Each structure stands twice: as structure tokens, then as C-alpha cells.
Amino acid sequence: MSDFVDRVTVHVKGGDGGNGSAGIRREKYKPLAGPNGGNGGDGGSVIFVADRNATSLLDYRFMPHRVAGNGTMGLGDNKDGSKGEDLILPVPCGTVVFSAKGAQGGERRPGDQLADLRHEGDRFVVAAGGSGGLGNIALANRTRRAPGFALLGELGEERDVILELKSIADVALVGFPSAGKSSLIAAISAAKPKIADYPFTTLVPNLGVVIAGDRRYTIADVPGLIPGASQGKGLGLEFLRHIERTEIIAHVIDCATLEPDRDPISDYEALEHELAEYAGSLDLPLGAIPIPERPRVIILNKADMPEAEELAEFVKPEFEAKGFPVFVISTASHKGLKELNFALSEMVVKMREEVAERERAEEEARVVIKPLEQEGRRRRRADEGGNALDFTVERKENANGEFWYEVLGAKPERWVMQTNFDNDEAVGYLADRLAKLGVEDELRRKGAHPGDEVRIGRGNRAVAFDWDPTISAGAEMLDGTQLGARGKDLRLEEQDTRAHRRTNAERRREYHEMMDARAAVREAMMAERKAGHWADPSIDDDRHDEHSLFGRGEGAEE
């Protein structure tokens, strides 16, 4: 089994955010002294990082599922939960990240390009962690002084991606099968590729590091190409992509081949035709040099055989006439390898300078629009509102005639995931947020009636309920009392009745009741006075009252 993997499908998931806490502060003589629940910790993110020490995607073939750490739950005493640990995944330089298209469990193919990790240290957050839920102390405000609920943490982002490695080497060796490319890279570097005398011995690209004096560069041995490779023949497109990022293309031509209708010139033209066909479909990265414009080097191999050396010397002037540097070498006897090594080193230095200059010019010419705030996770306000542009409402219907209203939008979907539906107070808070956002008005405009099914979100994360605008809005109670402080903690209400702030109507009603009670007492006392009651304290008015002033009830003298 080969230990080189250049395309894998990986399932990544960011960590879930921790739930907020609905804790209540305890003090002496005040068992319920107010909210003090902390916020949940944010979930960790899955991050791909380009690393020169990584040479293959083999690890992701055997471990394709990668999950970041979850955030912890908030605690009482205003203690926030801890953040989940980010998962840093090293990938080789030259790795391109694509979204995965295709049915789950079936063949997956690359979709949109998400990132191109070309340089050492390039990072890409492929799956962001979920935000932690707000605790009840963060939900408290002037009208909601003691929330008895907290928000749940958001789920981390989850997706399938395809990693595709496009080797970044300074020099690419291209040629027909058995042209001697593997022997050449083994002779000038420490790479140990498989070498045999049959076609397609090299099934995977081999990378080698070459040292020429005080310089070093990398060289890639690309598997053999044949006519039609750009259409998928032979190893085809599986390995043509490995020359996309190379700066110099070196043609290794077999001068000792015994196959009919083959000679160094026709081999070169056939290979250039395949490269031109493949280059037409490429979307090169910033600052890259198109394949037809990259410098070529002609390497006439197997000169240790007399017939091959004679043929090499014969065709060498024809290649030089095209403007190509030509080297006659033998990997068996090491003839001409030193000259080739230093010549390639000089070309690599020049190409690196040219590529760097191109990248700087492209960066200066490119218009970059930066947002006012740096992109990143921020703590959202608990009562964050919005407008009708933040969501969409559509009427859906299936083949059975069943219909529902689908609400989609970043805010409604996030709010639904944050809601604990076992807590009526939390459900009412969600209803108030949706009403403030304008969801109810939009449902009415779309023709929804009380009792119709409404779904917020899509897929497994969708929440369905029967729409009742009177209850879901949380704007009034059955008796018409305005709910000015949704989110009241009933436990605090039971302990301290003064926690309820009276309305002006309640104050007037209580005042009139108190004044009426005082007037009634005055009238009763005046009636008793006119009747002569309590005129003389020595007179016992009620002889049957054993609890009279002098304690002389009827029968007391007996």
C-alpha cells in the first residue's frame, strides 16, 4: 500500500458552545437575591494550517472525522464557562480545500474552493465553533430584573470537505513512462523512489530536496505521462495537478527507447501538447506563472549507451535552436548531473524572485475592501433586533396538499437553537424576539392564520410549531394586563411581593379602596357615638361580653 495520499474527504465539526447558567444568588436572610448565572464558553474551531513538515494527507484517510472541543457550561456566582480547545490540523503546503458535493455515503467530488494553503503558516478556519449561551445575568435588564432562564449554546459548524494536495516544488520532472525520472531524482537527492524497468513504476509523486553549494531546492518526480493524459488516460489528471505549482518544467527524454514512432522531438511535442491541453482548464493562484510561460529544461537521458549518446548529440542543436537549455546525462554513470544540478539551482533563484515580484504587483493592484469591524466572534446583545431583511418567509406545500410556512434567516435560526423549550419563560422570550424582528408581521403578510404550521430552520435543526400570534408574541395576558417585564422569576415573586412594580391604574385603584375603607370606618364610629356607645367607660354596655372592659360578663357575679 502506498504511503502517499493526495486527495481525501474529511468530516469536520466545530465544538458546541456551552449552555448559559440560570443561577440565583444566595445571601443571608435573602435566599433568592437575584440572578448570577454566567455565560457558557465558546466551542473550539477546526483549523487547517500549512506545515512544511507534513508531506502527505495519509493521516486524514485513516482518521477522516475531526471534532474540536466543546465549551463548558456557565456556573453561578457569575462564572463564565471555559472555551473549547481549537483543533489545529497540519496539512502540506499546496493543499487546496474544497467543499464536498454529492450524496452522503456516495461518491463525493470537489465543489467550491474554500482555501488555498500555499505558504508555510497559512491558516483556514474550516468549521467554526458555536457561541456559548448567555447566562441570566446577561439577560437581565431594567424590565427583566430576574430572568429564570438562560440561553443554550450554539452548535458548532459541521461540514464535509475535500483536501487536494498540489505539490509545491521548484522543478517538476515530466516525461514518458520509464524515461528515467525516478532514477534522476534518486541520483541527485536523498529520495528513494521505486525504480523498475516497466512502465508506470511510479504511481505517486516523489519529492526530493537537492543541495547545490549553499542553495537548496525541491524537485518533483511526476508519474509518467502519455498522449491523452489531459483527458484522463493513463494516470491522467490524478497527477497532472502536481505540476500546477512548480516553477520550472524539466523534460526527461529517453534517448534509448526501442519503441517505433518515438524519438526525442516527437516525445517533447507530445508532452507539450498534453501540458497545453491541461493548462487551458486551470485557475491559477495569485502571482502564479501560466504553464506555457514557465521555463523549460531539456534533459536527454541514458547517455551511458553509445546509441543513446549519439542520438542525444544529434538532437541537441535542434532543442537549443528553440531557446531551451539542454543537458545530456546518464543516471547510471552520473554523467552531466553536476552541471544539471547547478544550472537548475540558478534557474530556481531567478524564478523565485520573479514569482515574488508578481505576487507583490498583484497585491498592490488588487482592491481590498475591509469591513469596519474585524471578522470574528462577538458577544451578541440578548435583545438583538433587526428588520425584515434579516429573514425570509415562504409558503411551502407537499404533494399531499399539506402546507406550512418556512422561516429562514441567520437570526431566527440561531435564536431557535438557543432556546430551551422546556422553560415557558424562555419560549416567551423567543416569541418576543421574533415579534420584535418582524416575523409575525411577515407571516400575516404572507397569509398565515392562527393554527398554521410554522417551521424555523432547515433539515434536522428545524423547529415546527402551530402559530398562535396572541400567545407567541407575549404582548398581553388573558385579562389584558400589559407584560412590561417578561422574564420575571416567580421564585422571587413569592419571596418578595414588592418585586412587582404597580401600574398607575393599580395605584389609583388601591388608593380609592383605601379611602373608601377609611370613610366606612368613620361612618361606623360616628353611628356608635350617636348611639351612646363608649360614652362612660364605667358602664358595661354588653353584660354578655365576657371580654368587656371590666371583664364583667353575664354571670360573672355568680
From TrEMBL:
<dbReference type="InterPro" id="IPR006074">
    <property type="entry name" value="GTP1-OBG_CS"/>
</dbReference>
<dbReference type="InterPro" id="IPR045086">
    <property type="entry name" value="OBG_GTPase"/>
</dbReference>
<dbReference type="GO" id="GO:0003924">
    <property type="term" value="F:GTPase activity"/>
</dbReference>
<feature type="domain" description="OCT">
    <location>
        <begin position="383"/>
        <end position="469"/>
    </location>
</feature>
<dbReference type="GO" id="GO:0005737">
    <property type="term" value="C:cytoplasm"/>
</dbReference>
<protein>
    <recommendedName>
        <fullName>GTPase Obg</fullName>
        <ecNumber>3.6.5.-</ecNumber>
    </recommendedName>
</protein>
<comment type="similarity">
    <text>Belongs to the TRAFAC class OBG-HflX-like GTPase superfamily. OBG GTPase family.</text>
</comment>
<dbReference type="InterPro" id="IPR006169">
    <property type="entry name" value="GTP1_OBG_dom"/>
</dbReference>
<dbReference type="GO" id="GO:0005525">
    <property type="term" value="F:GTP binding"/>
</dbReference>
<keyword id="KW-0378">Hydrolase</keyword>
<keyword id="KW-0963">Cytoplasm</keyword>
<dbReference type="GO" id="GO:0000287">
    <property type="term" value="F:magnesium ion binding"/>
</dbReference>
<keyword id="KW-0479">Metal-binding</keyword>
<feature type="binding site">
    <location>
        <begin position="175"/>
        <end position="182"/>
    </location>
    <ligand>
        <name>GTP</name>
    </ligand>
</feature>
<comment type="function">
    <text>An essential GTPase which binds GTP, GDP and possibly (p)ppGpp with moderate affinity, with high nucleotide exchange rates and a fairly low GTP hydrolysis rate. Plays a role in control of the cell cycle, stress response, ribosome biogenesis and in those bacteria that undergo differentiation, in morphogenesis control.</text>
</comment>
<feature type="region of interest" description="Disordered">
    <location>
        <begin position="528"/>
        <end position="558"/>
    </location>
</feature>
<dbReference type="GO" id="GO:0042254">
    <property type="term" value="P:ribosome biogenesis"/>
</dbReference>
<dbReference type="InterPro" id="IPR015349">
    <property type="entry name" value="OCT_dom"/>
</dbReference>
<dbReference type="InterPro" id="IPR036346">
    <property type="entry name" value="GTP-bd_prot_GTP1/OBG_C_sf"/>
</dbReference>
<feature type="binding site">
    <location>
        <position position="202"/>
    </location>
    <ligand>
        <name>Mg(2+)</name>
    </ligand>
</feature>
<keyword id="KW-0342">GTP-binding</keyword>
<keyword id="KW-0547">Nucleotide-binding</keyword>
<dbReference type="InterPro" id="IPR027417">
    <property type="entry name" value="P-loop_NTPase"/>
</dbReference>
<feature type="binding site">
    <location>
        <position position="182"/>
    </location>
    <ligand>
        <name>Mg(2+)</name>
    </ligand>
</feature>
<comment type="subunit">
    <text>Monomer.</text>
</comment>
<feature type="binding site">
    <location>
        <begin position="200"/>
        <end position="204"/>
    </location>
    <ligand>
        <name>GTP</name>
    </ligand>
</feature>
<dbReference type="InterPro" id="IPR031167">
    <property type="entry name" value="G_OBG"/>
</dbReference>
<keyword id="KW-0460">Magnesium</keyword>
<dbReference type="InterPro" id="IPR006073">
    <property type="entry name" value="GTP-bd"/>
</dbReference>
<feature type="domain" description="OBG-type G">
    <location>
        <begin position="169"/>
        <end position="349"/>
    </location>
</feature>
<feature type="binding site">
    <location>
        <begin position="221"/>
        <end position="224"/>
    </location>
    <ligand>
        <name>GTP</name>
    </ligand>
</feature>
<feature type="binding site">
    <location>
        <begin position="330"/>
        <end position="332"/>
    </location>
    <ligand>
        <name>GTP</name>
    </ligand>
</feature>
<dbReference type="InterPro" id="IPR036726">
    <property type="entry name" value="GTP1_OBG_dom_sf"/>
</dbReference>
<feature type="compositionally biased region" description="Basic and acidic residues">
    <location>
        <begin position="540"/>
        <end position="549"/>
    </location>
</feature>
<feature type="binding site">
    <location>
        <begin position="301"/>
        <end position="304"/>
    </location>
    <ligand>
        <name>GTP</name>
    </ligand>
</feature>
<dbReference type="Pfam" id="PF01018">
    <property type="entry name" value="GTP1_OBG"/>
</dbReference>
<dbReference type="InterPro" id="IPR014100">
    <property type="entry name" value="GTP-bd_Obg/CgtA"/>
</dbReference>
<dbReference type="Pfam" id="PF01926">
    <property type="entry name" value="MMR_HSR1"/>
</dbReference>
<dbReference type="Pfam" id="PF09269">
    <property type="entry name" value="DUF1967"/>
</dbReference>
<feature type="domain" description="Obg">
    <location>
        <begin position="2"/>
        <end position="168"/>
    </location>
</feature>
